[in-house]
Amino acid sequence: MHRKVIAPSVLAASLLLVIPASAASSVPGAPGIGDSYYPTSGNGGYDVSHYDLRLKYEPKTDLLEGTATLLATATQELSRFNLDFGLKVSEIRVNGAKAKFATSGAHELEVTPTQALEKGKQASVVVKYAGKPSEFKVDGWSAWQRTPDGGVAAQEPDSAVWWFPSNDHPLDKATFDISVNVPDGTQAISNGVLQSQTSKLGWTRYNWRSNKPQATYLATLAVGKFDITTGTTASGLPILNAYSKDLGDNAGAARASVERTGEVAEWLESVFGPYPFNALGGYVPNVPSGFALETQSRPFYSPRQFANGANVSVVVHELAHQWYGDSVSVDNWKDIWINEGFARYSQWLWSEKEGEGTAQELADWTYRTRPADDPFWQVKPGDPGADNQFHGAVYDRGAIAIQALRNEIGDEKFFKILKGWPTEHAYGNAKVGDFVRYAEKVSGKPLAQLFETWLYTPGKPAFAPPSSQSPLARSSKAPAAEPVEPKSWKKIAATNSIHEH
Ligand SMILES: [Zn+2]
């Protein structure tokens, strides 16, 4: 998504204007949470702990009707606060009383309660709304994807404004109950556990629960006609996968990939530690877009990810995000490397395990196939800029950075870090700098220069083979052998449309 980025200094100045030190105790909340790439994402002044969404969706007309109940705690005395939302609102109640509201900007909903919210107290906010998500546009574009039999909300960095009002930034995570009423014969897929399903007068209601903190962009909804498969992991977690009945030639490859979710998650647990959520699965709707996304506990996969046959690598990538991205989320969107660098590196580790090329071989090949004058090397994975947030360099140069770390500190410390980090920041947020400090702490080595080189310095850095391997390589292969393309290379490259739209 391309938005106009306001320089952080301008934003800071405007915040100072609305919150003077001498103001009365009750003031409006800021219209943004303070993200340097997306100044209007999220809002200031409160923290949401739970969303209860009660929705009804008619696939024929794309009409979505909803009642959203948010439980939020004010973090300041609050005379007014913003929600991020795009559909038409008919009524808002705060602590039971009707509130005034107005819209502004691309997706701001300004709510003025009859009584100011007290700092530290929980408030309930009930929003009633209806609209056609495909008709709501930001910069001429809608994240809601219509399908022949329904619609899908799955997009990064945001999709929430198309289907529920929220504090739309990963800094404010909450638990979710998502209940969706759809015509009989149609399914509604969302996050977490399917608690129950009831039919009445030609409509079926699906009740989903995601009981661990979840970022708003990781909430997902897919309505359509699906084939559902279910299972249970060795540790007892429910698995639920959903495949559009209309996947055509990609149906077999999609199932042959996503049905391996439990197996992949079990392997990831051996690398990253215990799986952080209450359910597992994936869904493949009949959408035209080509990307995949790590929607919490139930990733979204475009059928095009399976156009060339089974693709377990994309499943590895999206499931790795459940630890790196979903449980431990970005603090600011500029921290995207702590999501994508590690999700890409997990694909390299899977290749290593499968005997299809080691992470070092993939790093070497990635490094070698990008000449020094390739603009790829100008993108800084540690702060790529909003326009380059999902640039290939964040993934590939970002993953070489991780291999460089592994070579610097050795496998024992390296895998200790990979497993320790998701526990250190479980269900929270982190910055790139937090990772650097954590890696230094666990390894006992100064690493600032390594990360400065790989994450923050434009240009192609030197990339030496691991010191433990180089003497052997020199003695056994003189002159140095030409690297060969790792067997997994093309499969991993085929997942490169991840997160693009
Ligand atoms: Zn990713």
From TrEMBL:
Cofactor: Zn(2+)
Enzyme nomenclature, EC number: 3.4.11.2
Catalysed conversion reaction: Release of an N-terminal amino acid, Xaa-|-Yaa- from a peptide, amide or arylamide. Xaa is preferably Ala, but may be most amino acids including Pro (slow action). When a terminal hydrophobic residue is followed by a prolyl residue, the two may be released as an intact Xaa-Pro dipeptide
Keyword Zinc tagged: yes
Location of the region described as Disordered in the Swiss-Prot/TrEMBL record: 465-501
Region forming the signal peptide: 1-23
Domain of life: Bacteria
Keyword Hydrolase found: yes
One of the Pfam families matching this protein, by short name: Peptidase_M1_N
InterPro entries noted in UniProt: Aminopeptidase_N-like_N (IPR045357), Aminopeptidase_N-like_N_sf (IPR042097), Peptidase_M1 (IPR001930), Peptidase_M1_aminopeptidases (IPR050344), Peptidase_M1_dom (IPR014782), Peptidase_M4/M1_CTD_sf (IPR027268)
Residues of the Peptidase M1 membrane alanine aminopeptidase domain: 310-454
Uppermost EC category: hydrolase
Sorted UniProt keywords: Hydrolase, Metal-binding, Metalloprotease, Protease, Signal, Zinc
Domain spans labelled Aminopeptidase N-like N-terminal: 49-218
PANTHER family recorded: AMINOPEPTIDASE N (PTHR11533:SF297), PROTEASE M1 ZINC METALLOPROTEASE (PTHR11533)
Assigned protein family: Belongs to the peptidase M1 family.
Name used for this protein in its record: Aminopeptidase N
Organism (species): Streptomyces cirratus
